[in-house]
Amino acid sequence: MIGARRAFAIVSGAVVILVTAALGVRAQGPRRSFAGTELGEAQLVAALASAPPERFRPVGSSSLVFQAELAGTIDAAFRPESRSHPRGWLAEVAAYRVAIELGLDDVPPAVLRSIDRAALRRALDPEVDFDELTSELVLTGNVARGAFVYWVPGMLRSDLDTPEGITRWRGWLAQGGAIPESDLALARDLSNVLVFDYLIANRDRWSGGNVRPLPNGRLVIRDHNLAFPFALGEGVQARMLETLRRTTRFSRSTIDHLIALDEEALRVALAADEPSMVLEDRQIAGVLERRETLLSYVGALIEAHGEEAVLYFE
């Protein structure tokens, strides 16, 4: 996909995308490393899927989520099916699978995993009342279904989600804006997160400390339990579009991947060789509708400013 040529034409307010080279970007399994680190993503996925949990410690403030200490070298966030967020665990896994299709390397790996009730109780922090916990936890038979998401260590606090921080990086992503050399990777990641959040309808990014960089200057795109809603009100849609408009510069690779993300590719990615997909048909329809809006926005910008100015990042 990288380097594929494309042309955007604006016809009656819509974007017609003419792809003049084969795209061929269907993801072939996890990428080699996570967010520019030395951590192999395939190894992360394998550990999340199979490493025995040794302790569960509640860490959620607005939803049920645990830090799961795993045997081995990594930890996980365990987001189980809960009464207040019955599809949050599925949204975490769907977000990771969509990220792979977009070529993003900074969304933490997430896998579906079930934990036996007895095992959860044995490993639960002793200060937690298990009986009280089960009033929110959904159990299917004797298991808690959920998502194990890579617990990223070493994330830094930042001002990226404050008004001052947003004003600073919004200038980077404006046409003609100067980006310090040391912040180029971060600027690209910020542009990507705006695209990603709009596509999956994640409206919960810019609050609660969800924007955290790593010491290497890369951004971690995490927490997607509220993504992929069944419906969005007009006011929410308008706010999401306004957030997207914080950038007029995009990654060429990300937009190439977005072009290739048609319904067939999306369904294949979401199924991932499992008997059922992690999203329902109406959620998939919403992703595809937002994809068209994204491509229309990018196409209009290209018509106004030129392809090189808009597809600014690789």
Residue share in helices? 25-40%
Largest sheet: 5 strands, antiparallel
- Provide the low-confidence segments as ranges: 1-28
Q: Give the strand order of the largest sheet, numbering strands 1, 2, ... along the chain.
A: 3-4-5-7-6
Count the strands?
9
Specify Rg, calculated over alpha carbons. Answer: 20 Å
**What is the count of helical runs?**
11
Q: What letter string, H or E per element, gives the SSE order?
A: EEHEEEHEHHEHHEEHHHHH
Share of residues in strands: 15-25%
Write down the overall geometry. Answer: globular
SS content category: alpha+beta
CA(first)-CA(last) distance: 11 Å
Average predicted local confidence, pLDDT: 88
Key descriptive features of the protein:
single chain, alpha+beta, 5-stranded antiparallel beta sheet, two-stranded antiparallel ribbon, 9 strands, 38% helix, disordered N terminus
What does this entry show, briefly?
The chain is an alpha+beta fold and 314 residues long. It is built from 11 helices and 9 strands.
Written account of the structure:
- Helix 2 packs across helix 9 and helix 6 packs antiparallel against helix 7 (234-244).
- The chain has a five-stranded antiparallel beta sheet, with helices on both faces. Strands 1-2 form a two-stranded antiparallel ribbon. A two-stranded antiparallel ribbon has the order 8-9.
- Helices cover 38% and strands 16% of the residues.
- It contains eleven helices and nine strands.
- It is of the alpha+beta class and 314 residues long.
- The model is unreliable at 1-28 (pLDDT under 50).
